[in-house]
Amino acid sequence: MDKLVIEGGKPLSGTIVIQGAKNAALPILAASLLAEGTFRIEHVPELLDIDVMLNILRELGCRAEHSGDTVVLDTEPAHTSHVPESLMKQMRSSIFLMGPLLARFGEAEVYQPGGCAIGERKIDLHLHGLQALGAEIEEFGNRIVCRAEKLRGADIHLSFPSVGATENIMMAAVRAEGRTTLTNAAREPEIQDLQRFLNAMGAKIMGAGTDTITIEGVQSLNPCQYRVIPDRIVAGTIMVAAAATRGQVTLQNTQPAHLSSLIHVLRRAGVQIVVDGDIIKVGCATRPKAVERVVTSPYPAFPTDLQSQLMVLLTLADGVSIMKETIFEGRLKHVDELSRMGADIRVDMNAAFIRGVPRLYGATVEATDLRAGAALVIAGLAAHGRTVVEQIHHIDRGYDKIESMLTRLGARISRYSPVPNN
Ligand code: EPZ
Asked: What is the mean pLDDT of residues 313-323?
């Protein structure tokens, strides 16, 4: 398995252009099944998760090409609603296919996508939402079969503002008969992007970005051309890396409004942030200050996907910080690895008490999930000495060649691929 080797202690500096948003592109690619024809979707990053989604679409019969950051997708040949278990299990987001397949074919056969290191990741809210629209769902072990002669609009309330459930219900409701009102919907920017994409296809959706989304069902939808929003989590990761290495970095192609919670916390830690249009400048020449309390919550609050990255900065801050993870029950696994680099962190249930230390030290550490892996890379960049990050396939799921991105900012980082034993 590939590894990243990092010689730490060098401040990041320079300019970086942010990639398209993985968590917007994935539901948008799934939603393309709702129409027959050729789509051109731009600003789609080259990531393992995107590859998996394109392979699933090909397995369903679509033709898909991904060159540079543009996907050309012909969904007309799609002929089956059965997603193979082998592909379903490779990625949680495969569950996004249920809504579009149900709307297009009147049935969908998928498999429990499985959890990963961050938690159980149930799908009950997805299933309840689709049932409210008229789907009949049977589960045979981890195989899930959905059928719907006709989808009918409904009033649906989510007990938790689940991002994926909101997106799945939106995608099923666009072809339902009548109006669907979804309350306590998730408000993430990626959901707003999905609404824009579906409306560009001819859907009639309003309210994404608020907690109430209204979908007027339509008879048919058409292919379109679309450009995906920038990835706010990749941007946030780079911002924290700039601060943790006491560097000076300019990020281009961002949407600062999507990062307001992180910008607020970094400023409280004494990091200089200048926003100018789609440019964010980040600088931190002195030791950051501890931040008394950071709690992850649904957007627009502080995102769980930046929790592990920010924790690295706080391990180097002056004072004691508290971080509370309220979204995923298993998303503090990076703490053990950071402790091996000299961090002083105590975990009690879902809260981490972080006492800042003067420096971290290089070590061999293991990525346990996508964002924990990114956090360990930041720790390696800031640490004194050499850090080896293993299991970096997790990182490749969400960052397009992270070592190239960071090398452009002056980092001393290389990828090592072991020679296969033949
Ligand atoms: C999306 O996952 C993102 N993934 C995640 O990003 C992100 O962390 C998460 O939203 C929260 O913002 C994509 O968009 C592809 P949820 P999703 O449904 O949709 C519980 C990354 O690093 N829940 O909002 O799976 C669930 O167990 C990834 O890019 C149910 O109980 O998140 C979790 O505790 C990681 N029942 C909480 O809700 C359900 O039916 C949030 O899950 C669905 C969810």
From this structure: 98
% helix, strand, coil for the chain, step of 5: 35, 30, 40
Number of domains in the chain: 2
Atom of ligand 1 nearest to the CA of 93: 15
Residue of the nearest CA to atom 16 in ligand 1?
162
Q: Which two tokens stand for residue 310?
A: 């920010």
Residue 45 or 86, more confident: 45
Q: For a substitution probing ligand 1, which of 22, 156, 163 has the most ligand atoms within 8 Å of its CB? A: 163
Asked whether residue 12 falls in the same domain as residue 26, the answer is no
End-to-end CA distance of the chain: 15
Does residue 138 lie within any of the structural domains? yes
Domain boundary among 198, 227, 256: 227
- Give the model confidence (pLDDT) of 49-84 as tens digits: 999 999 999 999 999 999 999 999 999 999 999 998
Choose among 42, 45, 51, 90: nearest CA to 402: 45
DSSP tag of 422: -
Please identify, among 210, 227, 244, the residue that sits at the C-terminal boundary of a domain.
Answer: 227
Structure tokens at 325: 């993870």
In a domain, 421, yes or no: no
Ligand 1 atom closest to 397 (CA): 29
403 and 313 co-located in one domain: yes
- Alpha carbon nearest to ligand 1 atom 31, residue: 122
What does the pLDDT average to over 35-53?
97
User: Which residues constitute the domain of residue 123?
Assistant: 22-227
List residues with catalytic annotation. 116
Residue 268 falls within a domain, yes or no?
yes
> Is the same domain home to 32 and 150?
yes
Residue closest via CA to ligand 1's atom 43 equals 123
Within 6 Å (CB) of ligand 1, which residues are found?
23, 26, 92-93, 119-126, 160, 162-165, 186, 304-305, 327-328, 370-371, 398
pLDDT digits (tens, 9 = 90+) for 116-131: 689 988 999 999 999 9
pLDDT > 90 fraction of the chain, expressed in percent and rounded: 92
